[in-house]
Amino acid sequence: MLSSRPRVLLADDYPDILKALSRLLAEDCEIVGSIADGSALLETAQRLQPDVIVLDVNLPGVHSLEACREITRMNPKMKVIMFTATADPIAGQEFFEAGAYAFVSKLASADLLSIIKRSVATDADARDPDSTSL
């Protein structure tokens, strides 16, 4: 049973982005952790079991596409929201094919909370059609 506040793991290599996301989401989400290096991403996700992972597309120490694929394979209920500074629809499609729930531009971070809320309210195989506009 999901709590009323989604459990969110943040993964971005910029400390200011992690702080801003934490502030943006803290009132409505339980931030279970923040990581700046992808080398521990899979272990951290397995240990913390968040409902949602907000994952930077270019996180150092991990190939984000493969990490997305592995996370959704090991726990299909865990939603991965790819967070990107670049608007690349081809990359977005690749991440959707790897199991990402959404592909969100950092310029659209104000929409992130509503996307997180929708993600925990949907089936494991669902994707967010509104997040494709970058």
Molecular structure report:
- The protein is an alpha/beta fold and 134 residues long.
- The chain has a single domain (7-121), classed as 3-Layer(aba) Sandwich (Rossmann fold).
- Helix content is 36%, strand content 19%.
- It has 5 helices and 5 strands.
- A 5-stranded parallel β-sheet has the order 2-1-3-4-5, sandwiched between helices.
- Helix 1 links the parallel strand 1 (7-11) and strand 2.
- The radius of gyration is 13 Å and the shape is globular.
- The mean pLDDT is 88.
Structural class: alpha/beta
The CATH architecture classification is: 3-Layer(aba) Sandwich
The CATH class:
Alpha Beta
Relative helix content: 25-40%
Q: How many runs of DSSP E, i.e. beta strands?
A: 5
CATH superfamily: Response regulator
Low-confidence stretches: none
Mean pLDDT: 88
* CATH topological fold name: Rossmann fold
Order of adjacent strands in the largest pleated sheet: 2-1-3-4-5
Largest sheet: 5 strands, parallel
Order of helices and strands: EHEHEHEHEH
For the CA atoms, what is the radius of gyration?
A: 13 Å
C-alpha geometry: globular
Number of helices: 5
Beta-strand content = 15-25%
- What is the distance, rounded to the nearest whole angstrom, between the alpha carbons of the first and last residues? 32 Å
Q: How many domain units?
A: 1
